Amino acid sequence: MNRFFQNYNTGKRIILHLCFWFLVLGMQFISYQRIDIDNSWILFVKDFFSLLTIFYVTAYIIIPRWFIPGKFVLCILWLLFIYAWWSFLSYFAALLTLKYLTPDVRLSSYLEIILSQGIFGAFRLSSISDYLLDFIFLVALPLTVKIVQAFMSVRNSKMKLELKNSALELNNVQLELAFLKYQINPHFLLNTLYSIYVLVSDHDERGGESMMRLSSIMVYLLHESNQPRIEISREFQLLKDYVELEKLRYSETVQISLNLAADDENCMMVPLIFFPFVENAFKHGPRLSSSAGWISIDIKVKDDTVYMHVANAYRELSKPENYIGGLGIENVKKRLELHYPHNHNLEIKSHEGVFSVNLVVTLHSETEP
Q1: Contact, 91 vs 114, CB < 8 A?
Q2: Could you report the per-residue pLDDT of 314-330, keeping only the tens digit for each?
Q3: Which pTM was predicted?
Q4: What is the three-class DSSP state of 262?
Q5: Percentage helix, strand, coil for the chain under 3-state DSSP, each rounded to 5
Q6: Which helix (H) or strand (E) holds 166?
Q7: Are 201 and 368 in contact (CB under 8 A)?
């Protein structure tokens, strides 16, 4: 049975439905045959037609669109409608049977009672209980099976969604932890601290300012970056502080261009998306001679869409054996897939001595972690 439902396709669905209706309608047919073998077929056709129409409309339209979403008033109105539909068919089936066939005394008396109560007999207080019991007997089994199956399907979908969200959250935490290990180059810290030490020793006023910038970066990395989303203005400030500190290291030997703009600096996004690309540019850009080294950082936010372009002069160098690199960039790619699936475009390329990164992210489509 488990193997049967593992690959539940259209063919298996048809087979299952045919078996189900063979059992249900077979029981109905046997019941009518016991009343009158030769003249009860119209009543059977009536039940066959009414039951199939009621079942499939209820199963594939009413249950998913009204019952599952909790539109119970509409469901009650639907029950009244199908009850009336079945009772009208019962009246006309009785009329046709008596007019064109010769049922035995037992069946005739039953049909005459139906006709005597009129076309609205199913709604008369004196006879509603009899009609209602027949109606419930007819539709209870197939509709109950479908309702239970619908509830199980919804429950399974919710469980799958919860498992998916749990797995997503776990992966997100793992990626965040891995990302924190590689989000800033230790050499940057050592070089920056040395540069600040030199400035402070020379009583250069830039020393105090640089200390504040480094402190701002560390506060951001240790505390603010743990938030699910952060204002774009804070991301921009991180980049400004980082670039200014790197300028201390390279002085005027590397041409650095930084352009940051946003039509709404309060818009929110996942933190630390830009930083690894910028750090990577400083890691590789100054490898050229002082006259040829350059870095360009251009980020703008317009209409809830981020456009980032980071480029630097690039020279391919042989990597040492067992070299491990690019972890920060790979983690950013995974973070983008987690938070902005199908709503980002990342292009990384190197050509003729230029390494460039282009990123476009639609912010309003962000997936909650």
Answers
A1: yes
A2: 876 655 554 444 556 87
A3: 0.52
A4: strand
A5: 65, 15, 20
A6: helix 128-182
A7: no
